[in-house]
Amino acid sequence: MHRNKLIEQIKIKRSYLCVGLDTDINKIPVHLRSLPDAVVRFNKAIIDSTKDYCVSYKINTAFYEAQGSKGWASMEETVSYIPDSHFKIADAKRADIGNTSSQYARAFFETINFDAVTVAPYMGEDSIRPFLEYNDKWAIVLGLTSNQGAADFEMLKVGGKGIAGRLELQEEYLYERVLKTVSSWGNQGNLMFVVGATQDAEFENIRNILPEHFLLVPGVGFQGGSLGNISKNALTSEIGLLVNASRAIIYAGSGENFSEEAAEIARQYQQEMSTYF
Amino acid sequence: MHRNKLIEQIKIKRSYLCVGLDTDINKIPVHLRSLPDAVVRFNKAIIDSTKDYCVSYKINTAFYEAQGSKGWASMEETVSYIPDSHFKIADAKRADIGNTSSQYARAFFETINFDAVTVAPYMGEDSIRPFLEYNDKWAIVLGLTSNQGAADFEMLKVGGKGIAGRLELQEEYLYERVLKTVSSWGNQGNLMFVVGATQDAEFENIRNILPEHFLLVPGVGFQGGSLGNISKNALTSEIGLLVNASRAIIYAGSGENFSEEAAEIARQYQQEMSTYF
Question: Does residue A225 register a pLDDT over 90?
């Protein structure tokens, strides 16, 4: 999907909501669980009921892989059901040497028609480049994540490359270096960055580093991040945000009317978002 | 697989060779390509012909995912064909927030019977812990990789956590910090680290940091790393190495007798390894 189309959809719907389909067979309503295509049925009902309130769906590949090849087939069927109007994200956290990343890009951009895939930066440039070589496809690179473990490496202070034994010290976090370096490999039409909603204190700084890029922000809802704070600190004139909620929406209800309850939570997010435009 | 069993297999075979099944449908012999189960046939023939010379197989998930759910099924069938005597690695470079990493662990340790999965460290402790909670299963965490991009972040010099505005400087690379920090989360029976064969200059240093851990070493053969140098610098009394070759072995031949040609290259690696014991 082209950046302009994404922005247009956001403005039409007055929503920058992404619904995360982290569909766990053990958490969906009991009356669906025994059906052979339970996950797909659940996802289709959630998509039907929430699509007016969101602009994007994010598929967390782990939950599908836990079901093996059957789960992978459920993912394929789910993605093909998502309307063309919606930005389709494979939350897969992939990346490997270039030769292998090319295969991941093929998996998510050709074999399945995702618009974007989340990518881990540790292995550097050649592990990310293959995802940037497609028209209107996106790499969404991990910047500062929402989890506790973000403190372990992402928040380490880094310096220069230690050339000639002399450390050229720059007081910046690893995640900042990742944002600066990776953003030089692509542009605002093929790169986004993941910033967790729980990282309130860093949002202003991140917008200074990336004034225009879209940020994918997980961690509202179940993980406790504040939609208001994120929006205040990170919205741009071209929006520049996709805010994801997964469990808070898809597991809002557990009975026969689960999809209506999911829709109601999605609608509440959209309503709040509409006030920030 | 328990560490003792792996060491025993290595000593019996006088081999620490891992064969990488990076099976690309477009690179396997022409006479197989049109068959419906081409990838599985190819893999089974390679396994049959190389299993006496290696102790491990490494499945590069990207090449299977590029074929969609059908590819994932080929991976499942391939893994179930690998003998119990061989250490089975999912080279998947996964990791996400804890809740999601648990699903990946389930995918590779329960739904499919891998012994180990490769894991990216960027997201920190809770993204790795779920892989360490299984008996006789392993996380193989990226340390210093074999690709050019390793210089971008893995070789950055890092300092302290910047607490109270004061940087406590330690002149070490990010990858060294990863080895030290991650190794404190597990033990020599559930953690290995990836170190690329092309990183000759760092092997002695890595052995100082991790005197006993197994290292998974890709990058010999096609990528140019030297088996002799690695073995000289990193072998321990309990071996502590799995050296992987993928393309150099599985694509050694392209005709009807491809599996014999693969076996010959695997045999040559084993022969050389036997001289380093």
Answer: no
